[in-house]
Amino acid sequence: MIEQKKIIEPEIITCEVCFKEIPISEAKSDKATDYIMYYCGLDCYDEWKKQEDKSNENSRLGEDLKS
User: Fold this and answer.
1) Where are the beta strands (DSSP E) in the chain?
2) 23: containing domain
3) What are phi and psi of 13, to 5 degrees?
4) Do residues 10 and 33 touch, judged by C-beta distance below 8 A?
5) Strands 36-39 and 28-31, how do they pair?
6) Overall domain count for the chain
7) 21 touches 13 (CB < 8 A)
8) 44 band by pLDDT with thresholds 50, 70 and 90
9) How many Cα neighbours within 13 Å face the side chain of 57?
10) More confident position, 25 or 63
11) Rounded distance, CA 59 to CA 61, Å?
12) What Cα–Cα distance (Å) separates residue 15 from each residue in 7, 56, 57?
């Protein structure tokens, strides 16, 4: 009798930028204090980083205007 092995599906996560579903083993991640954010590649990570930097810059400008 031939023994059949069960196929294990890889754990799938969603990219934080483009929402593409990817296996967790292929994802790039950025660890924060309370969570981990996953990206399908460095292009999406760079895009997220640009958005985050721009958001932080706008927050600082808003604080400067209040002072």
Assistant:
1) 12-14, 21-23, 28-31, 36-39
2) 12-66
3) -125, 170
4) no
5) antiparallel
6) 1
7) yes
8) very high
9) 6
10) 25
11) 5
12) 24, 21, 24
pTM > 0.85: no
Whole-Å CA distances, 59 to 14, 30, 50, 62? 27, 22, 14, 5
Q: Is residue 4 part of a domain?
A: no
Contact 64, 50 (CB under 8 A): no
Question: Using CA atoms, how far apart are residues 32 and 53, in angstroms rounded to an integer?
Answer: 16
pLDDT, position 6: 84
pLDDT greater than 90 at residue 3: no
Question: What is the chain's mean pLDDT, rounded?
Answer: 83
